[in-house]
Amino acid sequence: MRTRLLAVAVITLALAGCSSEPDALTLVETKSPVQLLRNEAWYRLPDVMIKEDSETSDTSEACDDDGALRLWRSSTIALLTNSQAPRAVTAGDNLSATFVEQGWEAQRSEEEGAVLTVLTKKSSVATIEIEAVLKTEEHRASIRITASGPCVMTAGADSDEVRTLEGE
């Protein structure tokens, strides 16, 4: 289930931001828009649905083998209350629809127990993924929000720029 959804996300990300030609932006110029987009999506979820924010991560990730070409990724997982768990997919679809209403294009894929929507907009440096996961024996009902920026040239994973942005 997650393997196919991950494959769709990787392909979409490759098409949306990680071409062989890096953007002229810097990693620092992409970090804020990515984080703001993730936060904006988070605050669009109804408070009554959210049990807790279980995981939030902000990090750069390599787009190439040597790690000089990097993107900024900001992600959070909203764990849903038991009473709202059956509405996870509807909530994910509703959240995605709020972006579509603002001109974002949506690409939706379904697997048993999960729905992934990847949103892109030509005027945005970021791509957003909204994955709604139904409650199963292996998974808690949740909505994962991940915003990713384009691949940009850096001095590599151990560079001062990357270490500073990652808070090391």
Cα distance spanning the termini: 35 Å
Rg, nearest Å: 16 Å
- What number of domains? 1
Order of helices and strands, N to C? Answer: HHEEHEEEEEH
Provide the structure class.
alpha+beta
Portion of residues in beta strands equals: 25-35%
Number of helices: 4
* Mean of residue pLDDT values: 85
Task: Tell me the total number of β-strands.
Answer: 7
Low-confidence stretches: 1-20
* Shape field: globular
Helix proportion of residues, in percent? Answer: 25-40%
Please summarize the sheet with the most strands. 7 strands, antiparallel
Report on this structure:
By secondary structure, this protein is of the alpha+beta class. The protein has one domain. It has helices spanning 2-16, 27-44, 88-100, 160-165; strands at 50-62, 69-80, 105-111, 114-120, 127-133, 142-148, 152-153. Strands 1, 2, 3, 4, 5, 6 and 7 form a seven-stranded antiparallel sheet that branches. The model is unreliable at 1-20 (pLDDT under 50).
Present the secondary structure layout:
Layout lengths: L1 H15 L10 H18 L5 E13 L6 E12 L7 H13 L4 E7 L2 E7 L6 E7 L8 E7 L3 E2 L6 H6 L3
Antiparallel strand pairs: 1-2, 2-6, 2-7, 3-4, 4-5, 5-6
Key descriptive features of the protein:
seven-stranded antiparallel beta sheet, globular, disordered N terminus, 168 residues, alpha+beta, 7 strands, single chain, 4 helices
Quick structural overview:
The chain has one domain.
